[in-house]
Write a structure and sequence with these properties.
single chain, 340 residues, mainly beta, Immunoglobulin-like, five-stranded mixed beta sheet
């Protein structure tokens, strides 16, 4: 009798052990629980202004983390106050898809027929397990009129080329297609601020400024005559450019201010007397990629301009090297990449 009870006890222990082992194995076989996507939408509108200009674009920037990998991103903007206007954009392929963590940075076109007013933005990320996360933001669409513009015009010609710190053959150049970046009174891009340039191409940059009635003012403002122009010089700041004189293969960036006459008809004499209402620019193969830049028109103290050379246009210390104050600061992005 005692032996029978002992055997039953052994059997019970064996069954218990097998059950615990089975449960343990099941737990180990289960996939770990992956969290739903996490979205840190740090900027809605330039400088996180929560604004975008009708006919321009909406700057969106932030970090997305999805343990189960990103499957799609959906953006929906709808009108508040009973309106029915909507803007939708989805990303289902490309650099944001199939990754665990990514920096999201895009500019969404705002249609010219969008009604001005209050809107609401939904930014939704879906992972490959079907989990979704949505963040929301208020947004205002405003009617904007440009305070300034930069017109980038493609330049071609058999004799046109960059050499050292300047270009050759510009007098015989042929002008091609143009792209315009417009700016508000604070220097933020209203449209075209996500600028795509061929890194090996040469562009003529024309600066435009406007008064309240939309009339162009740049010539009288900066190059009315030699005396006026002696106080102004343009810089292109940021981007960490490798300058052409520093490029072993001569594939660096060039930025050459080059007016040939002042607004009063007087000829401009000498490289240091040019201002930057008209500039010629190439990014250069050494500088491919995305760059945040600022076109600056600086008002200089008397006598300073003569000390500025053709290689000073991208200096990080330009404010201390060349005493004065910035009259214009026009902020935009350059994406230098070949079209495929």
């Amino acid at each position: 009798m005692r032996t029978l009870k002992h055997n039953k006890f052994i059997v019970a222990l064996t069954l218990l052990a097998a059950t615990l082992f089975s449960l343990s194995s099941c737990e180990k076989d289960k996939d770990p629980v992956l969290k739903a996507p996490v979205i840190d939408l740090s900027e809605v509108g330039s400088g996180n202004s929560k604004q975008a200009t009708i006919g321009g674009d909406l700057h969106l920037e932030g970090t997305i983390t999805a343990e189960a990998l990103i499957q799609r991103i959906d953006i929906e903007i709808h009108q508040e106050g009973g309106g029915s206007f909507e803007i939708e954009k989805s990303y289902t392929e490309g650099k944001y898809i199939g990754v665990r963590q990514v920096e999201f940075h895009e500019h969404l076109d705002i249609p010219a027929n969008a009604p001005a007013g209050e809107y609401h933005l939904h930014f939704t990320v879906t992972d490959k397990n079907g989990q979704t996360t949505t963040v929301e933001s208020e947004l205002e669409l405003v009617i904007g009129s440009p305070s300034a513009a930069l017109v980038f015009t493609l330049i071609t010609g058999e004799s046109v080329e960059g050499h050292g710190d300047h270009f050759h053959g510009l007098d015989g150049a042929v002008e091609g297609a143009s792209t315009t970046v417009t700016f508000d009174a604070n220097g933020n891009a209203l449209s075209g601020g996500h600028l795509h340039l061929d890194p090996e191409a040469i562009y003529k940059i024309s600066l435009k400024t406007y008064d309240a009635q939309g009339n162009e003012t740049q010539d009288q403002r900066f190059i009315a005559n030699e005396a006026t122009a002696s106080l102004y010089k343009a810089f292109l700041i940021g981007g960490g450019f490798i300058l052409n004189p520093d490029s072993p293969e001569g594939e660096g960036a060039l930025f050459q201010t080059r007016e040939t006459q002042y607004a009063d008809g007087t000829a401009v004499s000498g490289a240091t007397n040019t201002t930057g209402v008209t500039t010629y620019f190439t990014v250069g193969h050494d500088n491919e990629g995305e760059k945040d830049v600022t076109f600056v028109m600086r008002k200089l103290n008397a006598g300073v301009k003569a000390n500025i050379t053709r290689t000073d246009w991208n200096r990080t210390d330009y404010t201390t090297a060349f005493a004065g104050s910035n009259e214009l600061e026009l902020k935009f992005e350059i994406h230098a990449e070949h079209d495929h």
